[in-house]
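Q: Predict the assembly, please.
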Amino acid sequence: MGEWRATAASMEDPEISSISHVTMSPSRHNHVSLYSLPLSKSSYSVISAFCTEDNVPRCITYVNQELSSLGLSMCIEAGSPEGASLNAVPAINAMYELLQIHRQNMCTLEEMEEEQLKKLSTLEHMQTSNSRLKDQLELLMREKSGLHETERQLQLKIKTLQSCLKTEKEEVQKLQSIIASRASQYSHDAKRKEREASKLKERLSQLLVDRKEKKLAIDVLNCLGRSDGKRSLWRTAKLTASHESEMYKTLLGDYEANRKALLLENAELKKVLQQMKKEMMHILTPRQKSTSGASAGDSQQQVDSDEAKAGDTSREALDQSCELAREQLLNSIRQQWRKLRNHVEKLDQASQVQNQMESNKETIPLETHEDEMERMRQEVQQCREFIHAQQQLLRQQLNTSFDDETAALLNDCYTLEEKERLKEEWKLFEEQKRNFEKERNNFTEAAIRLGREKMAFEEDRAAWLKNQFLNITPFTDRRRCSSSDGQSALSIRSEPEIRMSSAKAKRSKSPTYTTFSTPKPSRSSTVPSTTELYRTLRILSDSSPISKLTLLHGSFTKTDQLGYHEKGGAAAPFRGEHKQSEGFAGSCGPAAVLLAECLAGSSAHWSVLQHQPFQAAESLLLLVNYTLH
Amino acid sequence: MNFSEVFKQSNQLCKVSPDGKYLATCVQYRLVVRDVSSLQILQLYTCLDQISHMEWSSDSLFILCAMYKRGLVQVWSLEQPDWHCKIDEGSIGLVSSRWSPDGRHILNTTEFHLRITVWSLCTKAVSYIKYPKACQKGIDFSRDGCYLALAERRDCKDYVSIFVCDDWHLLRHFETETQDLAGLEWSPNGCVLAVWDSCLEYKVLLYSLDGRLLSTYSAYEWSLGVKSVSWSPSSQFLAIGSYDEKVRILNHITWKKIVQFDHPAAIDNTKATVYKEVERRPAVVSEELSLHNITMVSTLFNTQSKYEICSLPVQIPVVKPDPDRANPKIGVSVLAFSSDSRYLATKNDNMATAVWVWDMQKMSLEALLEHTSAVRCFLWDPRRPRLALCTGNSKLYLWSPGGCVSVQVPVEGGFQVQSLNWHCSGDSVILLGKEQLCLCYMDTDQEENS
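A: Predicted assembly structure:
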């Protein structure tokens, strides 16, 4: 671009002086600015100036044209027809616009430059990275070529090695053939030599015999008798026959002995086999009896009987010890062995399954759990008594045995032992205590909740009283509605199986309490709904207040247990409600029931409270007192 | 353990009579017979030349003295000192002489194994057996003394002849399937004859008494084969030691390999006890050295040693054999079963310092005895499972299942035990030095108690 610009400038150089051209290429601006700079330094010259007094209109038109070409609608108007002066406002506006444009251009220029710089830098970066990559590429190429080279070399080596191997193999073959030929040659030579040697020996012995050496002699003072004392026999056919028979006799004896040994061994092995078989049967049969009942193993039983038959036959056959019997025995043993193996495998699998099962269900049946708990409790009680007795005894002993040291020493041992035992028991006791503590906490919580509920109830009562006051005359329908609600709620609770879970029921409780647990005002009032309520309450309390309360006690003490009590159906709702009350802080189910019970049979409740010796009981007491008032 | 005084002997010729009453020793050309219990000289015989071989007859009545150089054999009677017998083989020469089992015949092998001459002392009769084969063990009497098996070579083929020793009647004669028969040995019950090929081929053949081939065994081909063969006293096992440093045990029913005992140089996994002889040199005081008392010095230089139980792993020194020389010193050359067939002792030639004791019931290595020098000789007690060894130094080594002990022979002047012989009762051992001998009495009761 720059170059192009430069050439354009050089081409239009001569036209610069005459500023006659009106429509010029936009590049002209540059020239103007370029040339105007040096010109502006010099004094204002007429010739070089753009606008003179003569060509003002022309200039104006030119400027206008230029402006319009630039997209500016405004045009400079001549102030006078002669055009000597300019109309200042549009000119200035135009100028302003131009300046604006100029500034904008400058801005964009700057941006462009910046961008270009950025581009340049990125370009540079690219170039460097490019060059780096090129370098890398070159390096890799070099490496590749190097690897190629090594590969080629290795291939070459392999080839040479292969050829070497081939030659070696050939060599080996050659050597082998050489060895073989040499061996044959050697054996041949050896045979030849041996023959020669034997010939020589023959010749030598012949010669020696021929010479009839006198030296070859035996010189014995007197002949000896045979070692066995017999006389030597003549060589006869009989003798040779006897030798033969002797030999066979010895051989026979040997075989006989061998046979006996084998028989003995066989018998032993048979015995072992028999025993093994018996044991196998023994192992296999009772198992199947036991499993057949459980897992309907008809086929198994059948197989069992089959096998038993086979076993019998094999046992009979064992004594025969013939080919067939052996086969049978072997078969039966094999069969049994297979079964045993299967059984063992099955057992393995079963044990695995059982393990899994055990890991799955570690829950203990409820009754046993309960029984266990009962037993434990008794034990704890016993232990506590025991400890107490021991402590007393110890104290006594300590007091008595202070005077003589030996006794003390002796006692020390006892006491140490005792201490150990006590410590253990103490630990147990501690644990138990902790459990109790937990229970107590639960109870206190319940009691606190009760207290809260009582407060709510108080408030309710106040509200109800207020209501009573206010609604003493006209609004009967509303009361009826509330009372019916209460009835329904009570009836629901009176049914043991159903747990109170619906929000509606809960909501309905509070009015019921208000109705029945504020005794004096409600009694004085003659509203039918309350009397009805009372009746229902009476019915409820008449049914079985004592048992329920005792059961309530049970449920409270056993809060840590998760099992569901099945002793009495009546216990269930209490537990349920208790749980519910834990779940919903706002609800006051148990308190309500408790209160109901209190109203019904206070003596029974007292008995309950005596069993709860802690703070919760106190709070309950207060509560009960309050309600009894 | 007690030691007798030292007696002279030559050529290590010293033998106890089969009945265990007499001890015969050769000193140059004299034969001395002593009472074993008192060690007093009972008889003294003078031979014509230096004795090269001496042997008791089976009835302990006669002693054979062979002088191979002169081709002479002289026989002496213990009961009749005046009685004498001289057998002259003449110019044909003599290389070996032995009693027949009945003690009334002498079998002489002539030079070049031309023949075996059987001389009868009863009838002065002489008979020849031709073509005996010159080999490792070409002649063997069965244990009951009834039969003689003899290897023969005719027309470049191996044959075995079985003779009845009673009257030298040829009972069987059969060709064997061997390239070059190297040896034969009767089983202790006398019913099976083991025949093995030369070391060029691993081949063991088992023949019945009546010449039937019972079985053939070959462990491998091409490389050097059998080096030694031994029957267990019960005839139940046949142990084959070979050049591949292994012992293979064959059973007597199927004649197949039961087990194979390797002799590895590095032992790192075994239940066996490894005994290693450890030497301790006593401190030598220079003053004593300056005394120039030779016997003193020699006793002083006698190193003390004892066995120590090595913890595994154990590395046994191995001598690599020279491949260019014949009869390479490698492989199991000696096999010996204990008298009760319970243990097998072996020696691998390229680990000459070690003796391996194998338990034949467990079929595993029982003990390994490593010594400071090469083992010369080892022999089992004929009555008990007890192994006596010597390594050419002044010590006697004993192994029993209970343990291992080395005993210094308390003889002045240094007694180097070259070989040993058990007395047939197992109560004493005859230790043979280069020129001397001495008896070592075992305290039998103590041994048994401990």
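Chain B touches chain A through 46 residues (CB under 8 Å). The longest helix of chain B spans residues 294-301.
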